[in-house]
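ZP: hey, is the FFI complex queued? I don't see it on the tracker
AM: it wasn't, my bad. submitting now with these inputs:
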Amino acid sequence: MKINKPKHDVNPDLAKERLKCNFNIEEVTNIIDGGKDKTVQRKKIEDIALNNGASLDEVPEECLSIKERYENAVRKSCVYGNLVRNEMLEITGIENFESPVLRRTADAFFKDISPFMLHLGMFVPTLIGQCTPEQTAEWLPKALDMQIIGAYAQTELGHGTFIRGLETTATYNPEKEEFVLHSPTITSYKWWAGGLGKTANHCVVMAQLYTQGKCHGTHLFIVKIRDLDTHMPLPGITVGEIGPRMGFSSADNGFLRFDHFRIPRENMLMKHAKVEKDGVYVKSAKHGKLTYGTMVFIRVTLVSEMSFNISKAATIAIRYSAVRRQTELRPNEPEPQILDYPTQQHKLFICIATAHAFQLTSCWLWNTFQAVLADMKKGNVDTLPELHALSSCLKAVSTSDALSHIEQCRFACGGHGYMLSSNLPFIYSFVAATRTYEGDYTVLLLQTARFLVKASEQAEAGKKLTQTVSYLNRTANADRLNWDNTHEGIIKSFQVIAAGKIGQCVKSIRDRTASGMDYEDAWLMTTVQLVGAAEAHCRAVLLNTYWSEMRKITEASSADVKKVMHQLAVLYLMYWALEKTGDLLKYSSVSKKDLDELQRRYEELLAELRPNAVGLVDAFDLRDEILHSSLGSYDGRVYERLIEEAHKSPLNDEPVNQSFHKYTKPLMLGKL
Ligand SMILES: CCCCCCCCCCCCCCCCCCCCCC(=O)SCCNC(=O)CCNC(=O)[C@H](O)C(C)(C)COP(=O)(O)OP(=O)(O)OC[C@H]1O[C@@H](n2cnc3c(N)ncnc32)[C@H](O)[C@@H]1OP(=O)(O)O
Ligand SMILES: Cc1cc2nc3c(=O)[nH]c(=O)nc-3n(C[C@H](O)[C@H](O)[C@H](O)COP(=O)(O)OP(=O)(O)OC[C@H]3O[C@@H](n4cnc5c(N)ncnc54)[C@H](O)[C@@H]3O)c2cc1C
């Protein structure tokens, strides 16, 4: 594989690590990309970005003011957007406008985030999923060609989670064949939508639909909010930016208020329901929640997004750990590379394994999603509840795990990991938002729990369950599993833990209702357990999927690649078994001796993976221009880069800052 040649000599420790690697890195890269041809395609697209000015910021983004950051991000988004529409989509195919390759390439332009991300990320998918064919023909080409720029305005100041509680109204007027959009209260301000504040001229709006005096619940509308020529907000629209936040600092998350703002009837997105000219409401959807489709789609894509973010953090932390030496182990011996510490390996190797686990699971989930879409096209919505349950828990757990692993990567880099130039704080704050947006962690696990409780009751009644919960059929009446110290045994024990926890939830709810509580209160009192049960189910799905997909995908691999991929998957199983020893003790016959043995094997596995650590992150094939890290570059020039970055600080532009003469000196002289 052609590695982009570093401009400088590679740090000797890092160079030695690469010599130790005993598997074919390119083969693993191909596996991650989904095939050799996909790797070639990705590199071609990355070349387009890198040859067209990506990564060329004279002043680092973080040293700019809020306005400058935004303006710089818009400038780069336009360069990038133009490349996407003119060159990149030709390679991926226009139907793959959300390809992970485009997402990954965007990082070569933006350390933080593009204000246009939600245009491609949510506006376009909503048009695809929610429009009639006529509406698609009207809006989609303009959106893909970026003649219009959109946002997704659902969340309000008062409600994010509870969509049914949204307050924005869309009231139909049959005389004028128009909807009147209105924000009746302060809490009905649209709030948070990415790109809405300053960038977008259109947005999709979720509002309560009123026609013929009746509310029909939330529906989606496409709304032009700014003049296309002057970009001024249209009369009846108040729009702006919500202010600085933890991350997302180069984007313009927005607020929006409607004052009796009129839109044509045709701007209601009518694939699943419509309002006739005379105001009659007609619902065509076979499932009540199809207007939530974009959210399901994004939850599905976020699992792969998490894999990408963990792989970035792991690459930075592992390369840095090979370069960094710290603490004398024995007198007069060189200080070891910090990567030699098993505690460091414990923090980091699980990140590599998790990136693979999420990547393989995301491909599997994507295929499941496509199969459900195909069913729905044929009018069958029976598979949707399982997809909703699955995408909800996988979104929740993958974002939450990614966040904690990325934080471990930062810890693993000590003080230098705290520097923005390491890129770890950017990755962390970007991923921190994913745990909340597109459905909060707890809320989504409770959605999965609803499905699991029903499934458990069906299993109890002897009904055959669908694939992802079929383990409940086998384990419904099992009390404690006989511990079996094999890989399949560990996976089975996680299924038994999940079944046990779900069963316990069902029992708690029944006990509470039997003692006089109504069902809603009994459910509410059980929610702490329900969240735990849904998480356990998700762990069982992740472990099982990673293990089986890894075996499938490496069937034709070389022996060395097979071995190292197998080691990573075993590490993942063991890591989680050791994390959940309390549950194992509760739901299986595992003994202290078995757990000690598992711990010993885990520690041996860390040592076995150690020589391949750098090779494994090299296999993620993240070019320096995408990684943006002083600590994680391919050449390992960590200290030189930290100094170069320090010199870029605007505070070093002059030897004495004016504040000395203005404030400090008068203080020193007692003249303040
Ligand atoms: C051009 C240059 C480009 C440059 C850039 C280049 C970039 C390159 C490319 C770009 C890459 C992009 C990367 C991604 C970026 C993404 C960023 C995203 C940002 C963030 C966006 C957001 O953040 S956007 C708002 C999301 N906001 C939520 O996420 C609210 C959660 N809140 C709920 O989602 C509902 O509120 C909640 C709880 C379900 C209750 O809903 P509810 O009250 O209506 O329903 P109930 O609870 O009563 O449930 C009643 C029954 O409905 C069932 N059910 C519920 N939902 C269902 C469903 N969806 N499908 C099926 N069934 C469903 C349920 O299971 C029950 O079933 P059953 O009755 O059988 O038990
Ligand atoms: C960076 C970022 C970008 C965003 N972009 C967009 C966008 O483009 N478009 C858009 O429409 N929205 C966007 N959002 C909004 C996002 O979707 C919401 O913030 C998210 O859905 C959570 O809703 P909330 O803020 O109302 O939190 P809340 O629901 O108020 O959550 C607060 C707490 O209450 C708990 N809670 C709430 N309900 C329940 C319940 N039923 N049971 C138990 N606990 C509960 C939660 O677990 C949480 O701990 C964005 C948010 C962020 C942070």
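AM: back. The chain is about 55% helix and 10% strand.
ZP: great, adding it to the tracker
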